[in-house]
Amino acid sequence: MDAPLYLRPRVEAPLALLLSDRVFLHSLVDALGSPLNVLLPEALGINVARFRGVYSRHHLAGRVYFAHKTNRSSALLRRLAAEDPAAVGVDVASVEELRHALGCGFTGDRIMATGPKDAAFLWLAARVGATVNLDSPGELERLSGLVRTHGLSRIAVLVRLSGFEHRSGREAAGTRLLSRRSRFGTPVRDTEALLSALERNAETVEFVGAAYHLDTTGVEEKARALEQCVLFLDECRARGLAPRSLDIGGGFGVGYVAEAGEWERWTSALTEAVLGLRPPLTWRGHGYGLRNEGGTVRGAAALYPAHRPTAGPGYLDELLSLPAPALGRPPATLLLEHLHDLHIEPGRSLVDQCGLSLARVLDVRSADADSGQYLVHLAMNAGDMSLEEHGVLVDPVLLPRTETAAGDGKPVGVYLAGNLCLEADLITRRLVFLPQLPRAGDLLAFVNTAGYAMDFHAHHAQRQPVARTVAVERRGETWNWSLDEDYWPITPLGEQSDEV
Ligand SMILES: *Cc1c(COP(=O)(O)O)cnc(C)c1O
């Protein structure tokens, strides 16, 4: 066999400590079944502190709004609700997420309502005094109508903008301007109707600022959008409106793979495999978006950049420090000079290192006797652990059932298959290298799944169980755990608080 092409995960404390406790993780799955999601609320506190550190460094005010859609957990939301109300809020994208946030302890003034909204969502948001991140002028009219009809208080609104211009990365600076199309928000060139609607409805809605969320990793493109929003807010002030905040959305990213070298080796090998220069790395030669056209690689790999030199709080810091392309000053300076609050809506990056998903190995069989590859069936399906669906490629960690199961300890290439009777139910379509062959009863731990991968796509197909979710916390030499819905951020897990 060729040298194993590992994509080993980046694992930091306290997740690293949890992962080292094989016996505890096995006992959880024995009790609660496979698949199982395990969350670390304390890791969320660490991430909040890191993001707030960036705010302090740049002397900026404003809130970190967690993008709730990332994870359905109550434990995570309750842990966030316990943070400083002036520093941490939550971004909800449905009436059910809004109800959940209220039930987890967020007051309305810490809640941002985003995405397209129906009447119930708008009414409840206005009723509890949330901030509404308006998707369109039509939504503004509907919200204003509801406030008027139901005698509600004036409601704070941000306007979401889109269609910003940015330079094409490949060409010389300034040669070509592109604009990214989005399903959401009002195009920045098209704001006249929006502004007059804000003026017309000033009695019912209080215009507090602008917002955007760009689905890109490009820091330059985000800086350009930020500048265009600052210019838009200047224009609003010139018309007599009084905006004071800018919400730059999420997308700060997560580094999943620990080593740059492993990521580079794997992606080069994929290209070689697509060209037929080496044996396939994937099930049935799947190319992750790449294809061979007469000896040339075409297409773009639909992969998340799984190794990131900077991500999360570091990425925010980089964005704020970037010399601004048009206005000549770094974004942080621009915001300070204009006295704008900076709001962010991190999802994936705020739950970095906050959880893992466990699956029991059901069966191991030879996939191809010639190549020494194996097929490993898991008590989990592709909906339960959807890193693959999001284009994130990273290896699971093998947790053998018994210490003596080490076998001959030789690295092996395996395909990971799910528990549905579907050819397509693969946990990942690439050949995954493990340090040794797993056995039935072992566990695979997929780390860093709290962002989108553990419950976003979970379903009940074939009446297979959906994963239970537990919250765990280190107490002295052991772990305490509780079901996600029973976690409250008040007493150590597993202890009764009401005994006097
Ligand atoms: C999904 C989403 C986010 C979070 O994005 P991440 O990439 O997970 O940080 C933030 N804001 C809005 C409006 C979103 O739709």
Structure description:
Helix content is 26%, strand content 22%. By secondary structure, it is of the alpha/beta class. The protein has three domains: 15-40 and 354-484, Lyase, Ornithine Decarboxylase, Chain A, domain 1, CATH 2.40.37.10; 42-254 and 305-343, TIM Barrel (Alpha-Beta Barrel); 260-299, no CATH class. Strands 1, 15, 16, 17, 18, 19, 20, 21 and 22 form a nine-stranded mixed sheet that branches. Strands 2, 3, 4, 5, 6, 9, 10, 11 and 14 form a nine-stranded parallel sheet that branches. It has a two-stranded antiparallel ribbon with strand order 7-8. Helix 3 (41-57) packs parallel to helix 11 and helix 9 (219-238) packs across helix 11. The longest helix has 20 residues, at 219-238. The radius of gyration is 24 Å and the shape is globular. The model has no long low-confidence stretch (mean pLDDT 93). The structure holds pyridoxal-5'-phosphate.
Distance between the termini: 64 Å
| CATH architecture label name of the largest domain | Alpha-Beta Barrel
Overall CATH class of the largest domain: Alpha Beta
Largest sheet: 9 strands, mixed
The helix tally amounts to 12
Proportion of residues in helical segments:
25-40%
Low-confidence stretches: none
Mean of pLDDT: 93
Which fold name is given in CATH as the topology of the largest domain?
TIM Barrel
Ligands bound to this protein structure: pyridoxal-5'-phosphate
Radius of gyration: 24 Å
